[in-house]
Amino acid sequence: AGIDVRLGDIGAAIQEVMESYEIELDGKTLPIKPIRNLCGHNIGRYLIHSGKSVPIVANRDQTRMEEGELYAIETFGTTGSGYVQEEGVCSHYAKTADGQPRLPSAKKLLHSITKNFGTLPFCRRYLDRAGESHYYLGLRHLVDAGIVTAYPPLCDVKGSYTAQSEHTFILRPTVKEVLSRGDDY
Asked: Which pTM does this prediction carry?
């Protein structure tokens, strides 16, 4: 990754490395596959997903990384099918559009979401901590109106294992600065 690198080339490199691994579980050797319908992304001011997607499988995307951009390179591996679907009860959300809901409880909740989280993701437990209660109807109204986006759990085939790894970096004129660097990297 770096200035002028094609996003499709990054996906091809991630796929090649990920598919070179396997894991032994319960006496069976299983190949590791990238989860092809998930990706990394660039990050904007108060926008976790701000436009460009970084694939984790080979594709023909010719979009290039540019100086000054901030990216989250996320890799998702699985012993399953390599494709996830939304399943289960949703607990994570983010405000993704402006709007004026008609429902009074939705108006009140939107004010609290904007004040406490802006466009950053949040979960229902954070609403509880912010002092909100009896907000399910208002939250459903905000999701249905397209003001808040729901992010339900993503699941591969039953019995498979999945994992995610991520690093965040900024492309400076002469260097790629890894912002998520820690003792383990």
From this structure: 0.82
